[in-house]
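#lab-general

N.A. 3:47 PM
ok so I finally got the sequence cleaned up, no stray characters, all 1046 residues accounted for. can someone with queue access submit it? mine expired

B.Y. 3:52 PM
send it over

N.A. 3:53 PM
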Amino acid sequence: MISKLDMQKLIILFTFLMSTWTLIDLDAQKSIPAIVSVDQGIEHHKQHTFYLDANGLKRTLSKAVNARSNDVSNWTSIQLPDADGLQMDLKIGEDPVSLPEIYQMYPQNKTFKLQGKNDAHITGALTYSDQGFAGIIFTEDETIFIEPVGNGMHTSFVKNFHEMHKFHCGIDEAVDHSRIPSNTQGTFRGNDNKIRTYRLAVAAAGEFSDARSDNLTTINADLNYYVSVLNAYYEKELGIRFTRVSGNNLIFLDPATDNITPGNTSTCHTAIDAVMGSGNYDIGHAFGQIASGGSGIAGLGVVCNGSWKGRGWSSASNNNSMVDIMLHEVGHQFGAYHNFYGTAGNCVNRSVGRGYEPGSGNSLMSYESICFATSSPACATQNITPYVGTYYFHVNSLIEITNYVMQPGHCVAGVAGSNDIPVITMPANRTIPRGTPFALTGSATDSNPLTYNWEEYDTDNLTLTCPAGHPNDAANSTTAPLFRSFDPSATGSTRNFPKLSDILANTQTMGEILPNVARTINMRLTARDDLGGTNWGSMALTVNASAGPFVVNTANTATTYTAGQAVTVTWAVANTTAAPISCSNVNIKWSNDGGLSFPVTLVANTANDGTQSVNMPALGTTLGRIKVEAVGNYFFDINNANITVTSTCNPLVTSLTTTSQVTADAGAPALNLTMAYGQEVTSFTGTINTSDPSSSNPMRGSGNSSTCTALFSSRYETIPFTVSQTGNYSFGAGVSPFYFTSLFSSAFNSGSICTNWINANSYFFNSGSYGYSDGSVSATLTQGQAYVMRVAQNGTYNISISGAGSVLVSGGSLPSGFAYKYVIVKDGTTPTVKAIETTANMTNTTTYTSGTYKVYGFMVGSAVSLSAYIDQPLTNLTTAIGNGTVCGLMTNNFRPVTITGCVPTTKFVTSTSSSPSINGSLSNILAGACLGDTIKFSLPANSTITFTSQMTIASDLVIDGTGMTNLTLSGNNAVRLFEVNAGVTFGVKNIKLINGSSSTNGGAIWNKGTLILNGATLDGNKQGAANKALTNDGSISILGNTMIMM
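B.Y. 4:20 PM
back already:
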C-alpha cells in the first residue's frame, strides 16, 4: 500500500527523472562518432574524417578535473578515432599551460592532457577553441594528429613524408657552445626522476598574426596548442614541462614593427627579452608563417643562458607542420644536435661527430624523410622510413639533453617526481664474426609497462659530401653507424640485426647492414614508461674480421623431408671456435612458421664443428626453417628457404588476433577473455572467372599520387584479413600476368570504390590506360584492424606476402581431428601451465591468483590428453609438441594478462567513525576495496555515519544496508556524500542518504559512472541553497522502493 505522502514523493521523483536525468550512459555518449569516410584529397599517410559534437564534448570537458592535481583514475573518459577510424579509449584532464592570468583571459580556449584509459603508452594533448578541437596523440605505433576542418568536421591523420619534404632546419652557430656538455655519457644516465618546469616565453611574429587575421583569441589558441604539445612530448620522454609566461605582450600584429626578422634568432631573442626582461623566463621561442612547407632555426644549448635563451624560431604553413618543427628546434635549444649521418638532400645540414643514425635517421632530431635523391650532385635517396611514425629521442639526444639540464648550476633544479626510473639489465660484451646476423636481448624492471629500443651509438668526425656517407658504405667502415633506430615498442627489448624479415627474405634494407671489417659496435638499450621515466644501458660488440660469415648450408633452396627423417645439418664454422670468439657449441632449432619463432630445439649444445644429424619434427608444415645459434654468444644464421615436412600430424599455423593487455583484479568479469585467432598465410591464391562480380578498379591518381581514382571495370575477388603485428606489409602480384590489387580498411564497397581505400599497385595514366612498377602494393597496417585485399582480372592469381608480422585469414572449419584451445601460462622463473581450455576464462580466483600470465592459442588433436601438462612447466608441453608426443601447434604470439591481488569479497562496516584510520569504518573499507566488493554493515539499529569529507568511489562495488534497521549516511549539511568516477559501477541498496551538501553537482551523489539505487532513500540534500540530491553525468538505474525527496 502506497500512502498519499509516498505517492507525492514518487510523483516528485519521476518528475525529477523526466526533467533532469538522462537514463543512458553519457560516458558512452562521449564517444566521437566516425560517420564520414576518409577524404582522399589530402596526401597524409592515412587519415579518417569524422563529425564531432563540439558543444557536447565541451560540456563533458567542462567537468574534467585538473590533470596535475588529480590521479588519472579521476580524469574524464572519452573516445576519439585514430587515423584508421578505430576508437581510442582515453582519459582526459584539464591542463592549463599558461599562468592563470593568461589562461583565464580567453576562457573559450582550453588545454587538456590525454592518457590511454587502458594503455599508459598512449599520451598526448587536446585543445579546443572557436575553431574546433586540435590535438596530438602519441601511441606505441604512430603519432596521430587531430585537426578541425570546418562545420563540426575533424580529421585524425598520420603524416606522409611528402608533407615534410620542404622542411629545413638550421643551427645558430653564432651562439656560444661552451656551456654544452660533451656528448659522452658521463655521469648522468636517465632523467633522475625529477620534474623540471621551464618558464616559456612564446612570441607571435607579425606574419603569424596576419595569417590568423590578427585575432587574439585565435592566436592565443594556437600558441596554447603548441605549448600543450611541447608538454605532452617532453614530459613523456624526459620529465620536462613548460609554463607559458607570455601573453598578448609578445603577440605582434605588424611584421613591419615586430622587430623580428624571420629565421634570425638574434632578433627573436632581442624582441622577447625587451618585453619580458631577462629574469622572467627560461626559454623563448618565436613563431612565424610561410606559404608552404616549414623551416626552423635555433641556438644550440641556450636554455637559461641570459644572452641567448630567446634564440628559437619555427615557421610553417599549418599547425601540424609547426609542431614538428617546434619540437625539433626546442631540442636544439636544450643542447641536442642533429643525429643523422646521411648526406643526401636536406641532410647536407649534418652535425659532424653527432651522426649516430644511418641515412636520414628516424628519431626527432634526425631528418626523417628529407634525405631525398638529387641529380646534382647525383645522390640516391637516403631516407630510412616512408612516413613520419612515432616521435621519440634517439639515445644520443637523451644523453645530450640530460647532460645539459643536469649540469651544476642549471637554472631549473627540478622537484622529485612520484614516478620511478626503469632499472636496466644489459647483456655482456662479446666478440662476434663479421657478416653474421646476431640478436641482443636486455631487460628492465619498473612499476609501469615499458617500451624499449636498441640503438647503435657509433659515429665519427668525418666531413662527408654526397654520394659519400650512404648507409650501405658502413659495411666497410670502422666508425660509421651500421644499424638504424626503430621506434620504441613493448617487444623492443629483443632485436635481431639485421631485422628478421630481411634475414628470412635474404635481402638487405638500407639502414641495416652487417659489418665486413674489424670494428667495435657500441649499443644502447633505452627503456621508457612514457610517463617521464626513461633510462638506458650500454654494451659493446667486437667484430673479428678473421671469423665469419657463419652460414647455414642446409636447405637453402626449397626442400621436402618426412616427419622423423634423419637430416644432416651443415654450417660454415668460419673460425668461430678460435679465440677471441671461442664458440665451442651451438643449438640447432626448428621453426614451423617460416622463421618467425623457433620453439623447438632439435639438438642442444652440440659441438660447433659444422655438421650434425637431427631428426625432423613430427609436425607437418610447409614453413619449416632451421636456425643454428651460438651457445654463450649472440650470432646465428637461418637457412634461406622454407622446408616442407610431410606428416600425419598437420595442425595449421595460427596467430592470435587479440593480443591487447588485460589488467584486472582477481575474479573480475574482464578476465573472461574474448579471444580470436586466424590462420597464417604466406600468399593469397584463387581464380577469378565470369561468376565473380565486377566493378571499376580503384587505383592511385594521376602521377602516381596517393589519391584514389577509378578506371575501367574488371571482375574481382575480395579477401578479408588481419595482421598479427603493426608494421609495413607488401603484397606482390607480379606483372606477368598483371592483376589489379588494392587494399581497404574494414570493407570494400563496390558502389563507392574509394571508400576505405588505402593503396593500390597501379595508377591512373589517362582515360584509357594505367601504369605500375613491380605489381606490388604496400601499406602500414595495424594489429586489430580488419582489412580487405581486392584482386581483379580474370585468371588464377598468387599474391606473395611479406611484412612485419603474419597475415591472418579467419573463417573456415578446423582440420578434421583437431580442436582449438588456449594455453594459459603463469609467468615466473619457471613459466607454468595453469590451464588448457577451449575458452580463456580466468575468473576462477583459486586457479588465477595475482601475477602475470600469457595466453597462447593452440591447435591440437582432439583426442590428445593434456591433463598431464597442467601445473607443470611450459617446457614440458613445448617439448612434447616438438617430439610428436602431442600433435599440436601453439601460436607464436600471446595475450598478456596481469591479475592484481585484490579478490572481491563481502566486507563489513563495524564502526560509525568517518575516519579512514579506524579499522572497520566505511572510509577505511572503501580505501581498501576491491573491484566487485559488496560492503555490508554490522551496526546497532538506528546507526548514523556522519561524513566529514566526500568519499570517492573508484572501483565497482555495492554498499548494502540489507538487514540493518534505519541505517543512515549523513553529510551533516556540510559535505557531499559520494562522487562516482567515470567507468565505475556503484550500487546503493537499502540505505538512507541525508543532509549532503555541495555548491555544485548535487548534494548526495555526483555520478559520472553507472549508479544503481535499489531501495535507497535520498532526503534533505542540497546543492547550494537549492534542494538537489544528484547530478548525473553517467547512467542511472532506479530499482525497488527508492525514494528521492527534493
